[in-house]
Amino acid sequence: MTLSSTPLWPAPTAAGPVDATVRLPGSKSVTNRALILAALGTAPSLIRRPLDARDTRLMAAALRVLGAEVAEEADGWRVTPATFASGGTVDCGLAGTVMRFVPPVAVLADGDVHLDGDEHARVRPMEVIISALKTLGADIDDADGQPGFLPLTVRGSGALPGGKVTIDASASSQFVSGLLLAGARYERGLTVLHDGKPIPSTPHIQMTVGMLRERGVEVDDTEPDTWRVLPGPIAGLDTVAEPDLSNAAPFLAAAMVTGGVVRVSGWPSATAQPGDQLRDLLNRMGARCELADGVLTVTGSAIHGIDADLHDVGELTPVIAAIAALADSPSHLRGIAHLRGHETDRLAGLAAEINGLGGDVTETDDGLTIHPRPLHGGVFASYDDHRMAQAGAVLGLAVPGVQVENIATTAKTLPEFPSMWAELLELERAA
Length: 431
Ligand SMILES: O=C(O)C1=C[C@@H](OP(=O)(O)O)[C@@H](O)[C@H](O)C1
Ligand SMILES: C=C(OP(=O)(O)O)C(=O)O
Prior knowledge:
The chain is α/β, with parallel strands linked by helices. It folds into two domains: 8-25 and 243-430, Enolpyruvate transferase domain (UDP-n-acetylglucosamine1-carboxyvinyl-transferase, Chain); 28-230, UDP-n-acetylglucosamine1-carboxyvinyl-transferase, Chain, CATH 3.65.10.10. It is built from 13 helices and 23 strands. It has helices at 28-39, 54-65, 96-106, 127-135, 174-183, 202-214, 249-258, 278-284, 317-325, 346-356, 386-398, 417-424, 427-430, and strands at 8-10, 19-22, 45-48, 69-73, 76-80, 88-91, 110-116, 140-141, 152-157, 163-167, 190-194, 219-220, 226-229, 238-240, 261-265, 288-292, 295-299, 307-309, 331-334, 360-364, 367-371, 378-380, 402-405. β4 (69-73) and β5 form a beta hairpin. α5 runs parallel beside α6 (202-214) and α7 packs parallel to α11. The N and C termini lie close together (5 Å). Residues 1-5 have low confidence and may be disordered. The structure holds shikimate-3-phosphate (S3P) and phosphoenolpyruvate. Shikimate-3-phosphate is lined by residues 29, 96-97, 172-174, 177, 200-201, 204, 314-315, 338. Monomer. One of its GO terms (molecular function) is 3-phosphoshikimate 1-carboxyvinyltransferase activity.
């Protein structure tokens, strides 16, 4: 059996409980922050165990456009800081981290930096970052397409005054993170104030602040919804990227769905990654989760529905929704209206695809209500969304005949997903 990137991927159904140990590559969020900070640094950096996937390759390519060197070496990715000598063209793909983190850096280039991405990237929210940078002194032309969206051109002049800006970051934490990552390189530094509904995915902002401090940048986040980055150098660093805990979700879900056991090695004892909250969420859904000596072990038995606010951990939603569709009671997933601006409108996508298999999922203003129903096989569309494809794979474990469209889209953050899934189910050895 070949599990390759065919347009329709027959999701393997589990023959019995899985029993596997999974090693995950580096975190997308950590790798892309480390790349940005290395390019802005005063000395070369080494990123050990980086994620090598579409989103991180796009980031590396974007930074090369700005004159950074990213060399893939045996012990990791060695980054020589950007020269900012000229502009160029940046492909953002569908990566939120590239489209929101690169413009604040591109303002430092001596020349025009043109950014565009996949078709769906052109509808992901960008207005907040564009107008914030304009307030801080940047010249940005977003008249090529629909104003407030990609494509856009940052007319870099080699420096940015910086200062204070008020934004509404309720649609994405990446607006705050993007500005903070570059803020120390602005002449007056940067103060960001948030004014609006609560910001989603706040652990990712803590990750940003933590990684800035690791590189010697002074950040004051003592006031709620306010961040002050002092102007100053960003040190080069030799660092190891943590494993991507959000990508642990489908594998841990497999333990639950098959009543088996999955161990994930290299689980950090302390982390800002939202995936760490899987331990609590899966436990509340009926799994036993034990973290000992850096190994998370999840053992499945009955699956229960959950009433959960996923505002802080929105990227876990597709897999949680798939597990919930197989539970013994209803689930209410709340606080995730912002998922409508992710790789696809994830609330609409999950409702349509799970219902297409016979499920009962209703969209609410800020989430999903999931009533488990007996499911049948059928095509599960992925909408070019890696986590939608993973959700389809999880359902396929329990539901014969699920065919996931474009499984290759998992390459956004985990190109090895199809082979790791086969290994989990011991299909590769049996083939
Ligand atoms: O900063 C980051 O690395 C991320 C922030 C979050 O974005 P939103 O705040 O837009 O949800 C998250 O969902 C995304 O996968 C990665
Ligand atoms: C929302 C996500 O990605 P992005 O970084 O493209 O926003 C995600 O990975 O779930």
